[in-house]
Structure formats: C-alpha cells, structure tokens
Design goal:
The protein is an alpha+beta fold. The chain folds into 2 domains: 188 residues, FAD/NAD(P)-binding domain, CATH 3.50.50; 137 residues, D-Amino Acid Oxidase, Chain A, domain 2, CATH 3.30.9.10. Helices cover 28% and strands 26% of the residues. It is built from 10 helices and 22 strands. The strands form 6 sheets. Strands 8-2-1-12-22-21 form a 6-stranded mixed β-sheet, sandwiched between helices. It has a 4-stranded mixed β-sheet with strand order 5-6-4-15. Strand 1, helix 1 and strand 2 form a beta-alpha-beta unit. Helix 1 runs parallel beside helix 7, helix 1 packs parallel to helix 10 and helix 3 crosses helix 10. The chain is globular, with a radius of gyration of 20 Å. The mean pLDDT is 96. Bound molecules: flavin-adenine dinucleotide. The site of flavin-adenine dinucleotide has 42 residues, from helix 1, helix 2 and helix 10. This is FAD-binding oxidoreductase. InterPro entries: FAD-dep_OxRdtase, FAD/NAD-bd_sf. GO terms for molecular function: oxidoreductase activity.
Length: 367
C-alpha cells in the first residue's frame, strides 16, 4: 500500500509516523513547513477534563502515547504530566464540573473535586477567590514547537518521505488511486489522508463532501521569565470563555482564552485583537494574582478549523474509496494528536479501528 498524507501539522506528522511503523510506504506532503500551522501556535495543553465524552477513548489513547513520546520519537518534546487544575468562580460552573465528573467516570476519567481550603494548601497563590476546582493528576502539557518536527523526523527514520514547500498541491484521482501534483514533483498513491487542518474542508469539498467549518484564532500571550512556581496547567470552568495558563520550565507564563476567538480571513493569517488584551489579562490575573505586574513580551494567534458541532472530522470518506479525513480539531486537537495519528494509521492499514471513531464521521453532514 502507498499512502500520501496531506498536511504536515501534528495530525499529519503523527499519521505518517504510525503508518511508516506499520510498514506502509508513506509520503507526507506539506505546502509550507512541518508543524507551522495551528500546531505551533497551540497552548500545549494536554487536557481531558471538559471534553465531549465520546472523545475520551481517543484522548486516553493519546495520553498513553504522550507518556511514551520520548521513547517513541527519540527526543524530549517536553511532555510533563504535571496535572491539570481547573478553578471555579461561580455556582453554575461548579454544577457543570460536578455533572462532568460524574458523567466522565464510566468513560474512564477520574477527576478530583477540590474545596477552597485544599486549593490554598496544595496550590498556594492560585485562584485565591475560587470557590472550588477540579484536578486531573495525569494530564499536563508539551511543547507545541517541538512535537510536529519530532513526529516528522521519526517518520522519516521509519521510512516515510517528507515533502515540504509543496505549494498548494493539485489532487486528482488516477489509476484507481490519487495523484498529487506539487512544486516538488508529482506523486501517486492508493490512499490519501486529508490532514490539512483548517483547510481540510477545501480538500473534502473537492470530493463532494461539505463540512460546516469556520476558521478562528484563539488569542495567546507569554510573559517575561519568572521564578518557576506554577507546576500544573491552570484553567477555569466558566460558562463563557474560560482562561488558562501554564509556566514553562524556563519561567515564562504562557496564557490564552478568556475572550472570544478572532475570526480568520481567507489568507489564513490569524491576527490578535488588541482590544481583547485587557479583558483577557483580567481573567488571567484571577487565576494567578501574582501576574498582575508582570510584563507580557509576545502575543500571537493561529488559524484553527472549528466544525459547527465542535467535533473533528475523522474516518473514511463517504464518497471516495481510499480517501480518509482527520481535520477540524476545534481548538482541542493538540492533546489528541498522537492518538489521532495512531488511530488513523490503524484504520488505513487494517480497515478497522479499536477506538470508536463513529461520532466523528464525515457522513454526519450528509443530510
Ligand atoms: C492558538 C491555539 C491554541 C491551541 N491550544 C490548544 C491546546 O492547548 N490544547 C489542545 O488540545 N489544542 C489546542 N489547539 C488546537 C490544536 O493546536 C490543533 O487542533 C492541532 O494542532 C491541529 O493540528 P492539525 O495537524 O490538524 O493542523 P495544522 O497544525 O494547522 O496543520 C495542517 C497543515 O496542513 C497544511 N496544509 C493545508 N492545506 C494543505 C494542502 N492543500 N496541501 C498541503 N498542505 C496543506 C498547512 O500548511 C498546515 O501545516 C490550539 C490551537 C490554536 C490555534
């Protein structure tokens, strides 16, 4: 079997890696640089709390792979299972947390509910006005700059060919398979995996499959380096836009959320909106008041594809044998990435997947 994976973000790089390990002849075709799309812009949160419940089996599969990432990839991608603390500031959000904790238990996710005294004792300085919190001890974070290239390099070592700077490839069907014409040459394959992220909708449409996907950019920022004091990833249960932060080992505090995401135009370049900066910082300071007087040294955003029902598109094409999709990860794909690559490789090579992917099938939009 010959496969082409189109799109070299985390999903495409991980899919190419796991396909190559299964002995499939695979080419990863990226129009720009590996990992430079939504993946590099990510906050890096490896969080299962708050996920759509049918996504938890895939999230568990992903977490098991994050735990083995260094051994699998031959490189430290800074996965740190520091735990995920999610603070609560109002009664409605506390009820949401309690409902989620109860419902997630049969899906294999146990989260601890913390009272204010416990938050102060275990996490001094975080959320002093919080009325409760949840804590998920096995979750954490990794470095979004490292992980895409690490998967692509490991895929190359396992036999994959990595093609970067391929322009916007023209994809047609040919000889019972697919032909991909690029600035770096033309390639044919029996199988095509659409991992084109926010642009996956365009490729799917070429094969008669419409997906209600829009592009938005979450707004991120990072502070100057500070003494390392914050161990867990810190988030917020909130009925509007919850904020989040984490401190990297070098000391900078990375933050995001707290304000609505900015729409991205057709160019795909996600700009930050300076009018949202002050309200965003207000929420961040609520999570950690010590950040009030700290300098923010950089802000950025990234173009992410959001599907109308807030679930990704994963699985075989409805119209075209040999075509598979894995795109539109709605702002929560970083955690899932290794699991998506492993599950897609299993599906492509064997025709089956032990992790249920039915809730994410593209046929849900057929009507
Ligand atoms: C600012 C921000 C913060 C985020 N924070 C988190 C977080 O903390 N936790 C979490 O779980 N998720 C987070 N996410 C979401 C997560 O980063 C994404 O869901 C994930 O990285 C998507 O990976 P991808 O490979 O599908 O897409 P991308 O990384 O965008 O990769 C798609 C690639 O396809 C290429 N491409 C597109 N069209 C073509 C074509 N026709 N031919 C060839 N190549 C093509 C693009 O150039 C791009 O490199 C965040 C996203 C953003 C933007």
């Amino acid at each position: 079997m010959r496969a082409i994976v189109l799109g070299g973000g985390l999903m495409g790089s991980a899919t190419a890696f796991f396909l190559a390990r299964r002995g499939v002849a695979v080419r990863l075709v990226e129009r720009g640089y590996i990992g430079a799309g939504a993946t590099v812009a990510s906050f890096g949160n490896i969080r299962r709390t708050g996920r759509h419940l049918p996504q938890l089996p895939l999230a568990h599969r992903a977490l098991a792979l994050w735990n083995r990432a260094e051994a699998l990839l031959g490189r430290d991608v800074e996965f740190r299972p520091t735990g995920h603390l999610r603070l609560i500031f109002d009664a409605g959000s506390r009820r949401d947390m309690e409902r989620f904790a109860e419902a997630a238990r049969p899906w294999g996710l146990e989260i601890e509910a913390l009272a204010p005294g416990e938050i102060r004792r275990r996490f001094p300085g975080l959320g002093p006005s919080a009325i409760a919190a949840s804590f998920s001890p096995e979750d954490g974070s990794a470095n979004p700059r490292l992980v895409g290239p690490a998967f692509a390099d490991a895929a190359a070592r396992a036999g994959a060919e990595i093609v970067q700077g391929a322009g916007v490839p023209l994809v047609t069907t040919a000889n019972g398979g697919f032909r991909v014409e690029t600035e770096q040459g033309d390639f044919e394959a029996d199988v095509l995996v659409n991992c084109a992220g926010a642009w996956g909708k365009t490729l799917a449409a070429q094969f008669g499959e419409d997906v209600p996907l829009s592009t938005h950019g979450p707004q991120m920022g990072v502070t100057e380096p500070l003494p390392h004091r914050i161990l867990p990833v810190v988030g917020m249960w909130s009925q509007d836009a919850g904020a989040y932060l984490r401190q990297v080992e070098r000391g900078n505090v990375v933050f995001g959320g707290g304000v609505p995401r900015v729409p991205v135009d057709d160019s795909g370049f996600a700009r930050i909106d300076s009018a949202r900066f002050a309200p965003q910082l207000e929420k961040i300071v609520r999570l950690c008041p010590a950040l009030r007087d700290v300098a923010v040294i950089r802000q950025w955003s990234g173009c992410e594809g959001y599907v109308a029902d807030d679930l990704p598109v994963m699985g075989p094409s409805r119209t075209t044998p040999g075509l598979f999709h894995a795109f539109g990860f709605c702002g929560h794909g970083f955690q899932l990435g290794p699991g998506v690559g492993d599950a897609m490789a299993e599906l492509v090579e064997t025709g089956r997947c032990e992790t249920p992917l039915e809730p994410f099938g593209i046929e849900r939009f057929a009507a």
